Amino acid sequence: MDTLLHFVNLVLHIDKFLGDFIHVYGTWVYAVLFLIVFCETGLVVLPFLPGDSLLFIGGAFCASGEMNLGLLIVLLLVAAVAGNTVNYMIGRAIGPRVFNSHIPFLERFLDRAALQKTHNFYEKHGGKTIVLARFIPVVRTFAPFVAGASEMTVSRFQLFNILGALFWVLLLVLLGYFFGNIPFIRQYLNVIVLVGIGAAVVPVVLGALWKVMRKNAAAK
Q: 140-161 burial string, b = 16+ CB within 10 Å, else e?
């Protein structure tokens, strides 16, 4: 419980944490941001890391001269593309094996036909999914894994992986660079972060609930 509260406090005051880190460790902040973005996008078990907030606040610190804008953008782009690529390769390596394991316990819960449907969906709509998922916490961690598990073609995945990373990194870092140090935004940054996360997550949750309700209604 204490660990959870500490993490929530860190997310809500990420600007203070990052500022203190820069003052103490200087350029090591680039390595920390690289690792956080890489781990959030590359490791399925770490979807809770605050990538959006860090990009925005990193841009704000660039505007105040404490970080270099060009260097930050390049490092974050590399981290975002590499993270998604690793996530995709993990999904591609273990996803089909899990579905074709012929283990009775797993076959009871996994549907190979559903995997084929997912593959067809990603071949048709996967590009939009990979790009838009960049802006939705948690979803951006699982989207490349699912793309790999459903065997979305590598060339198609990488095209939209790079496009999504460009949109995500450039938009949030530059927003932070131009607006992050405005007194009003700086004062209410925590609220803005929460509103932003809510605006991204709530439509996804509502959409999922709507599909479940429609499915149940159709079944009845």
A: bbbbbbbbbbbbbeeeebeebb
